[in-house]
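Changelog note: in this version the structure field was regenerated for every chain. One regenerated record is shown below for reference.
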Amino acid sequence: MKKKIRLILLPIFIVSFIAINFTSCSTKKELTKVRVNEVTHSIFYAPQYAAISQGFFKEEGLEIELTNGGGADKVMTALLSGQCDIGFMGPEATLYVYNQGKEDYAVNFAQLTKRDGSFLMARKPDPNFTWDKVKGKHIIAGRKGGMPEMTLEYVIRKHGMIPNKDVTCDTTIQFNLMAGAFTGGTGDYVALFEPTASMLEKEGKGYIVASIGKDSGEVPYTVYSAKKSYIEKNKDIIQKFTNAIYKGQQWVEKSSYEEIAKAIKPFFPDANDEILVTVVKRYKDQDTWAKNPILTPEALDLLQTIISEAGELDKKVPYEKVVTTEFAERAIKKIK
């Protein structure tokens, strides 16, 4: 009798074992890889990294392959050439491409940050810094036509000065080489993102004197974009991606500085834990991160004003051409 029972149970165990392993393999295969090219690698994008580390993309069935483009122009090139599926950059790049008359242009579908994330650094500490002190000075400002450089110029104008007349805004140095140029002796000031700014400060090679994001006010600074054709063919992927980003935004909003720092630590293994917490606090306290992924008409209009004042926009682009909010709106309705 025992032998018969064993013979009956054996096939059941084998079938169950195969089923469990098949299900496990199927689950792994269900993850769809999405290639994301980010404009730079910074704590500034904490909600994105939190969405990855907290498993929000996996919950949506997505696997994120993240690469650093090193500038919005390079990210857009990768996007248009098919080297990535989604570009993460300043929305100014989509405006330029649209005005060039590209048929399959890029469309912005989700916003992550709502302020500039860079900080003005000086060679010496200046706790009493005021913007009039940059008059007659040399600032390493970033790539001409890029959001960091244009926002810096916007702040300079707000304080009654004319860029490249009252103050030199150096746009000749590549984004990834700005810190090295400054420590090498170029310029009186430099605009840098985190954690680079705080790391330089810790080394005594530069000192943060102002938050460009705080002084510029709210602006749609960094967004997710995809080619029009990609969005049309992959609406489900774009929706799932937006859902995950919104979950990341919600999580960061309710989490402590220390919890956020811990969540993004794997993306910044060389960063000191204390620096991570300090930078997260700095960004969160100045209300850097968007509360939801919707890019509004008012925000895009302000952005286009900033770009126009910088002399980089030939004509304003219709909001509905380069922005879609359908995925962000669905995410907000679905995720509570």
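Spot check on this record: Residues 2-30 form the longest helix (29 residues). Confidence is low (pLDDT under 50) at residues 22-27.
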